[in-house]
Amino acid sequence: MLREITTLLAKDFRLEWRQKSALGGLLLYVGSTVFVCFLSFSLRGGQPPAPAWNALLWVILLFAAINAVAKGFMQESPGQRLYYYTLVRPQAIILAKMLYNALLLMAVALLGLFLYTVFLGNPIQDAPLFVANLLLGAVGFATTLTLVSGIAAKAGGNGATLMAVLGFPVMVPMLLLLIKVSKNALDGLDRSVSHQSLLTLLALNMLVGALSYVLFPYLWRG
Predict the structure, then answer these.
(1) Is 0.85 topped by the overall pTM?
(2) Which residue spans traverse the membrane (predicted)?
(3) What would the pLDDT profile of 157-171 be if each residue is shown by its tens digit?
């Protein structure tokens, strides 16, 4: 299993490197949205208030995650999926996709945070808590949207639209927790206030990962 996961992960990295336009488009989206936010608030005299700063950051990261993960299964033809089915186990496929998307989204999240603080200021009072919450959110987006992407790809039709429709209601509880913890980090509250929310986020990530591991083989054979 581990060998299959590492092989599939290396394949995804090679494909991403060969198709630099997709990665470049994702980075351009993050950079341009941050710059537009900077232009909007600079006309009003500078840095946005902390609640608006927090909300805009998560909106940018959410749509960046959808754009990044959507191509995972949808760029593969039915013939490619059938070929993979003859070579590796479906559990290895879903775990490799989740791991690749988690690494990609963590890198995008850190880059987005860096650009965001450069252009829109840094009101964060507890940086370690904020970064930990950001990385946990990136992993949560990756695990949830990877499974939704697999479902949308199997359904056929306009997979990107179907993924957005299916993914957003699933992401709302996670987003509420992420925004709550990041607001606590912005306000500099004691970390014990955020422990329960962080544990809930971790449990959600593990639950989605376990469900994907159990259910994806049935979806893959469908």
Answers:
(1) yes
(2) 21-43, 55-74, 99-121, 127-148, 160-179, 199-220
(3) 555 667 777 777 878
